[in-house]
């Protein structure tokens, strides 16, 4: 079978994630996930909200497919809710959960949109966390069994798969910084989680065989030391932010700096014989989610910067954020995307997709005319698409660019306070009306202009 991503062409898409949009948290046999549990912890989510309703996309998926179709894009990237498909985390597939994704996939294809599914976008079934979560090897084994079972059912129609979304967040925000579910603050557990996430990917590859189209999505970031003295610290940070995922894929090894930062990865009871060989070469493509660069500076001693807790073992660091910033406080630097794509291309040789890029802007209200005129988001997207084009011109093999995100949704620890959507979701009305923003129309025009809409691609017929 041909690679689902055509070389030499940048296909546009948009992305979402199950927990952020679906709601219906107990419908049709869905079990609890670690995010359902975490949302109940007072103070864990900024506005005290949760995902029980989110965007109601479990109920309103047809309307959301219409919105994707109206965007003229070729790809829709969504994630599969493990607790909907395997409520206990292991064992039988829940037919009602499967039916939901069956319908979604069939409808997307019927509308001329190519589906790409992510198996794990952070909604770990709670029973698996109760048994220890990602720091335990059994979770990697459970993941591969879940992934293979779902791939067997949807793989005839979904050609492009990602195992994990942003394993750095799952491991380090979840188990070291504790600002994401499950909210644990154990640096060593986070390093073990990192290995088990990669092992889960490798075991999944082993289970499904060499069928083309399996990748992994990482939130890699360019690391720019704030001062020359911070360069060694930046190298240690780069090890745990970027190389921990890429090195086992490309080299089948963890490097010495990383082993110093994360001694757990040198422990043969954690990284067992054969694990790295399993991960080595196991991805057909690499997804990169890019939002912002990282600028480490030497810490001022004693207490670590709060986000420094997400880099256990790196050392005493500060993270500098320069202006301009988006509404979530992330520095805007499109040149970081260009640099990253060129470097990762050289490092991996894999076909690359920008699987997420987008911006939170202060646009939670409609103006008097009922419009959300998000020119700031349009400027962000335009600049980052131009950076992607520039990387391609420098030789990077980038085959897709997916906007994060279709709908204003549940933004994890920020709840509903930060909006990244191309479509405004009016939470003041009980039926959650969807109102496309100016950026939605801009992307729709850009997709046509670039000839990247599925319907506009010569020879593409949905097969
Ligand atoms: C990424 C996540 C995605 C969304 C964006 C803003 O880290 O993958 O779910 O929250 O950030």
The averaged pLDDT comes out at 95
Supply the CATH superfamily name.
Glycosidases
Number of strands: 12
The level of helicity is: 25-40%
Structural class: alpha/beta
What is CATH's topology name? TIM Barrel
Bound small molecules, deduplicated: beta-D-fucopyranose
Largest sheet: 8 strands, parallel, barrel
* Rg, Cα atoms, Å: 21 Å
CATH class: Alpha Beta
The number of helical segments is 15
Summary of the model, kept short:
The protein has helices at about 20, 35-40, 55-70, 80-85, 95-110, 125-130, 135-155, 165-175, 185-210, 230-250, 255-260, 275-280, 335-350, 375-395, 440-450; strands spanning about 10-15, 75-80, 115-120, 160-165, 215-220, 285-290, 295-300, 315-320, 350-355, 400-405, 425, 435. With about 475 residues, the protein is of the alpha/beta class. Beta-D-fucopyranose binds near residues 17, 166, 219 and 289.
């Amino acid at each position: 079978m041909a690679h689902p991503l055509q070389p030499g062409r940048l296909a546009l898409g948009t992305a979402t994630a199950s927990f952020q949009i679906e709601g219906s948290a107990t419908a049709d046999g869905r079990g609890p996930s670690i995010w359902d549990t975490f949302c109940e912890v007072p103070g864990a989510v900024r506005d005290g909200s949760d995902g029980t309703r989110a965007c109601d996309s479990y109920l309103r998926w047809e309307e959301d497919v219409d919105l994707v179709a109206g965007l003229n894009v070729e790809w829709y990237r969504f994630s599969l809710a493990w607790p909907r498909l395997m409520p206990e985390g292991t064992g039988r597939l829940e037919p009602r959960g499967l039916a939901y994704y069956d319908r979604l996939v069939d409808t997307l294809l019927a509308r001329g949109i190519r589906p790409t599914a992510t198996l794990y976008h952070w909604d770990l079934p709670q029973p698996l966390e109760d048994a220890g979560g990602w720091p335990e090897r059994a979770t990697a084994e459970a993941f591969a069994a879940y992934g293979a079972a779902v791939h067997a059912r949807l793989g005839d129609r979904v050609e492009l798969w990602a195992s994990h979304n942003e394993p750095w967040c799952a491991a380090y925000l979840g188990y070291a910084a504790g600002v994401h579910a499950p909210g644990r603050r154990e640096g060593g557990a986070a390093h073990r989680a990192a290995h088990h996430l990669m092992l889960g990917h490798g075991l999944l590859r082993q289970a499904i065989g060499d069928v083309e189209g399996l990748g992994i999505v990482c939130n890699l970031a360019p690391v720019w030391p704030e001062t020359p003295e911070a360069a060694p610290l930046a190298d240690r940070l780069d090890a745990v932010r970027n190389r921990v995922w890429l090195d086992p894929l490309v080299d089948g090894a963890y490097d010495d700096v990383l082993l110093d930062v994360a001694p757990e990865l040198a422990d043969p009871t954690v990284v067992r014989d054969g694990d790295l060989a399993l991960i080595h070469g196991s991805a057909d493509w690499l997804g990169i989610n890019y939002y912002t660069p990282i600028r480490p500076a030497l810490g001022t001693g004693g207490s670590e910067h709060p986000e420094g807790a997400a880099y256990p073992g790196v050392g005493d660091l500060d993270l500098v954020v320069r202006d301009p910033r988006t509404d979530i406080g992330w520095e805007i630097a499109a040149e970081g995307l260009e640099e990253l794509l060129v470097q990762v291309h050289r490092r991996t040789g894999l076909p690359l997709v920008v699987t997420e890029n987008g911006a939170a802007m202060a646009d939670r209200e409609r103006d008097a005319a009922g419009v959300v005129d998000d020119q700031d988001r349009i400027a962000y997207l335009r600049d980052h698409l131009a950076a992607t084009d520039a990387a391609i011109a420098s030789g990077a093999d980038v085959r897709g660019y997916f906007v994060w995100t279709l709908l204003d949704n549940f933004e994890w620890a920020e709840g509903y306070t930060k909006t990244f959507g191309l479509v405004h979701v009016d939470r003041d009305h009980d039926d959650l009306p969807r109102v496309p923003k100016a950026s939605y129309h801009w992307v729709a025009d850009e997709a046509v202009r670039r000839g990247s809409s599925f319907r506009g691609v010569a020879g593409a017929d949905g097969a």
